[in-house]
Amino acid sequence: MIKNSVFLTILILTFPLAAFAHSVDFTNSSGTLSGTNSGLTLAGSTLIAVNGLGSGLITGTNLGTLTFSTGKLSSGSLQMGGTFAAGGMFTITGNGTSGIANGVIFNGSFTGPLTWTLVTLSNGTHNYTLTGSLVGTWQNGTTVNGATVQLTINTGRGFFSGKTNISSGDTNIVTAVPEPGTLGLLGTGLIGIAGIVRHKLKSV
Hints:
By secondary structure, the protein is of the alpha+beta class. Helix content is about 20%, strand content about 55%. Strand 2 and strand 3 form a beta hairpin. Helix 1 (about 1-15) runs antiparallel to helix 2. The longest helix has 23 residues, at about 180-200. It starts with a helix and ends with a helix. The relative contact order is 0.19.
């Protein structure tokens, strides 16, 4: 019974390998986040790190820009948190630094409701986070998906009043998923691994 349990656990842990995909991670810093019930807009935010764009991790003080706008506030409030409607726009642009493309890298919009969350710290001050999923066009013309998380500068004991600064943000864009043939080979490999593990467990 223990052998079977161990076998099943190891086999289950191998299945997430089939979901591996290539993605590019963008980190942005600063910028002004403005908002009304009609939506939030980020301007002037600078890319400071890009990971997975051909040559591994690239860092710098200014690698490009990240801008976005959301749909209208659909529930909750600007001060206490809520959700914004899908739509709007989301653009990542490189400036040619350190091998990053000089031009638009990703251009898209939000695919579902965005979550605007009030975070009250132990000292009574506040931060806000904005999270949402994305779909759009990659620099090579393909359609890609992604997600973003943006964190505001601490607003003190006051609440968001229509304008604040971004502390940092992280955006992950999935640029490629395994082809069916690759998944088939991976599946064959998993079966092989399962056989080896079963054999070893029988000899325990």
